Amino acid sequence: MIVYSKRYGDVDAIWRRTNGKCHLCHEGVGLHTYGCLSLYGGEAGSVDHLVPQYFGGTDHFDNLRIAHQRCNSGRGIRDPDEVRLELAGRLDEPRSAGQEVLRAVAITGGGAAVGGLIALATADPVVDETSRQRARNRVIAGSVAGGLLCLLAALATR
């Protein structure tokens, strides 16, 4: 579904930036609810300005986030971190789907490399040369696989 606004442009791209979650409460925002306040009330999707217009914030894409109407209205001109802490109990913004993939890949690839390093460090050098070689291979494979998966994930999110 593509939602376009004369004022904000590609609302779908703004929505994808936080993986369809309100940047304030971290709960899902249905893209189909955007601008439908009379139908969905406070659950309707809206575009929020990180730097409020009151303080000189613009409609530039980097200053826009998706939010529930109730969260956006409740925030007013307060700092988004203050409202996130109040509503979601955390300060960070929800991650996009691409950021989640990159995070998982980094953890998985890094985990294989770290596991190999631990095995390499703890292998008995005299008795267990086969284990040492396997550990070296895991370090290399984990690093290469992690790097390739990060590259593929980055390309897929473009």
Give the SSE map:
Blueprint: E1 4-5, E2 9-10, H1 11-17, H2 37-40, E3 45-49, E4 64-68, H3 69-75, H4 80-88, H5 97-122, H6 129-156
Antiparallel strand pairs: 1-2, 3-4
Description:
This protein is mostly helical. The protein has 2 domains: 4-88, DNA Binding (I), subunit A; 97-156. Helix content is 51%, strand content 9%. Strand 1 (4-5) and strand 2 (9-10) form a beta hairpin. The mean pLDDT is 79.
Essential attributes:
DNA Binding (I), subunit A; 2 domains; two-stranded antiparallel ribbon; 6 helices
Quick take:
Helix content is 51%, strand content 9%. The chain contains 6 helices and 4 strands.
Distance between the termini: 18 Å
Percent helix among the residues?
40-55%
How many structural domains in the coordinates?
Answer: 2
| CATH architecture label of the largest domain | Orthogonal Bundle
| Oligomer category | single chain
Proportion of β residues? 5-15%
